[in-house]
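User: Could you go from structure to sequence for me? I need the amino acid at each position, not a summary. Structure tokens:
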């Protein structure tokens, strides 16, 4: 039985490989033409040192000049000495181009377009061949049918028999919005390039705080599907903020996750002062102190740049330094672009 290894390179490109039992990860990569940087093969140089974000493994022999005991305890590995004993995610400190890795393009077809509100559209596609692995939280570049242009969208689900979902903002005059609101039909051909991105769910080792702004909810829906499949013993709390009531979507889906994922809770926030929502204002005004655990928390944040900067400033002002802080900014495409 093989183990699936996700190699996430420093430019966000991810490739998945299959490692055979007792096969060194570096050998499994080389077998597929992926050249992880390496100057030796005996644990002496440290050139292939990477970080294992999740999964279990064994390590062969190496010297301290290549990797210290403290680094090993922190999850660093030498791929020339690493044998996976489960599926793993490795963070490779090198660009994909250096390792001769090309971003894959996948053919797909439109399955369904679902307007969720005046401001938000969901769409579902099926990947040809049924195989597009990615890490929960990553994105792809989607070629807009009838054009040569692409738009970047985070997966809002994990793959099910090659079927994947996306959640996008409906921008009047926007290229993808115009297509989705108009001629889009089942069977339309699309091209997806990826997966890409360093914003993905790591194996929870402490409490998790998710902060979503608008359609920045999308990657969290994929993360929550992963947590539904592989529950954690740590609490997970989400604060989901939007500008207007109409922007608040997929709440029943979040309620379903709250019922099926032990320890998952969420709160919604609307910024519009005219709203009758029970929580008004910004996400930073509704961060429960107990969800911060004095900084012993992994924070994931996805939203527009002003929100990302506001959260960072809030942490600085309150003196909270999260154990880890993963964030992704997005700018909706402008009309006519």
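Assistant: Here is the amino acid at each position, in order:
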């Amino acid at each position: 039985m093989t183990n699936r290894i996700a190699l996430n390179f420093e430019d966000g490109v991810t490739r998945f490989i299959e490692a055979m039992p007792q096969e060194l990860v570096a050998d499994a990569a080389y077998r597929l033409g992926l050249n992880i940087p390496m100057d030796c093969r005996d644990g002496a140089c440290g050139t292939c040192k990477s970080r294992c974000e999740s999964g279990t493994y064994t390590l062969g022999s190496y010297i301290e000049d290549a990797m210290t005991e403290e680094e090993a305890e922190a999850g660093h590995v030498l791929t020339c000495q690493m044998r996976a004993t489960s599926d793993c995610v490795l963070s490779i400190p090198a660009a994909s181009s250096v390792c001769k890795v090309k971003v894959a393009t996948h053919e797909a077809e439109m399955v369904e377009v679902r307007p969720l509100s005046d401001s938000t559209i969901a769409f579902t596609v099926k990947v040809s061949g049924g195989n597009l692995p990615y890490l929960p939280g990553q994105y792809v570049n989607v070629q807009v049918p009838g054009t040569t242009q692409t738009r970047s969208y985070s997966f809002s689900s994990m793959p099910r028999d090659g079927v994947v979902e996306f959640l996008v903002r409906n921008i009047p005059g926007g290229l993808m919005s115009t297509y989705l609101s108009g001629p889009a039909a089942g069977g339309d051909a699309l091209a997806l390039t990826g997966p890409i991105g360093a914003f993905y769910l790591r194996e929870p080792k402490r409490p998790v705080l998710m902060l979503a702004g608008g359609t920045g909810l999308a990657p969290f829906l994929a993360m929550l599907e992963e947590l539904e499949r592989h529950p954690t013993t740590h609490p997970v709390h989400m604060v989901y903020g939007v500008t207007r009531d109409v922007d608040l979507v997929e709440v029943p889906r979040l309620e379903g996750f709250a019922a099926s994922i032990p320890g998952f809770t969420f709160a919604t926030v609307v910024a519009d002062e005219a709203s009758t929502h029970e929580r008004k204002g910004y996400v930073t005004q509704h961060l429960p102190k107990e969800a911060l655990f004095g900084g012993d928390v992994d924070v994931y944040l996805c939203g527009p740049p002003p929100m990302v900067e506001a959260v960072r400033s809030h942490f600085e002002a309150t003196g909270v330094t999260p154990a880890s802080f993963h964030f992704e900014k997005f700018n909706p495409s402008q009309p006519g672009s």
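One structural detail worth keeping in mind: The radius of gyration is 21 Å.
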